[in-house]
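WARN no homologs supplied; continuing
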Amino acid sequence: MTTTTRAAGRSDLRALLGRVATHGYLVLLVLFVALPLLWVLLLSVKTLPDAYTNQIIPRFGLTLEHYWQTWGAIASLRRNFLNSAIVAVGSIFLTVAAASLVAYAVVHLRFRAKAVVIVTAFAALLIPVRVSGIIGVWAVQRQLDLLDSVLGLIPPYSTFGLAVGFFIMKSTFELIPKELMEAAEVDGASPLWRFWHVGVPLARNGLIVAGLTQFILSWGDYLLAVTLTTSLESRTLPVLLATATGGMGAWNWPSISAVFVMASLPVLIVFILVYRRFMQGVLEGGLRG
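OK structure emitted
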């Protein structure tokens, strides 16, 4: 066997071991994320005798009783679902609209404060504003009489998600050739017309990535909702989940699991619906970066 052949064999072996290690790591990562979710899902459909045993496979079959019981036992559950939906949808529209306009201006318009906008947005990512700014947000909300209000939660969620949305949309608008914008400008189109009729149609994938990111952040957030609301009727689903045992008896694990599954379903459904566009947007941003 020649030296070249042995070197080629060692190179192939290293490549094979690298692929095995990579796929093994990805499998472990998926299992690390998926197994707890599958455990909660299985627990939510087990009967009570099966739920309090260590057996993974149910002996007494599966049941949806805990879902119906939970839906009726927690009086505010429907309202909390609706609150979370209102806050999520409202913050998505505000965040995506504001982030898109700012990102478009930074990429395709000429003004002096571009560096200031980018540095400010970058600083917002570095500083944990959700924690450090919570007292200031509470004081502002009280001055505006927006405490314990569902609609009052939308502006803070939109503000805290603006920096992430800005950088997503900035990467997306940088993919649009400047020649298209310049041609529209030569034809007499205003900046707003160019944004709406040229930028937005070509940035749909980025809009979906920004919207889904904001949806996940607002749907699952606990700190803002528990700080800015006091009544159970005004609170969102994550706050209810923190006290889920209250309507179902102490430590009724199957019913608690059912609540968590119901709370996770909207995120899963939305992600499935926009999966293709979301991945295209992520890949486009990655290629640009």
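The mean pLDDT is 83.
OK
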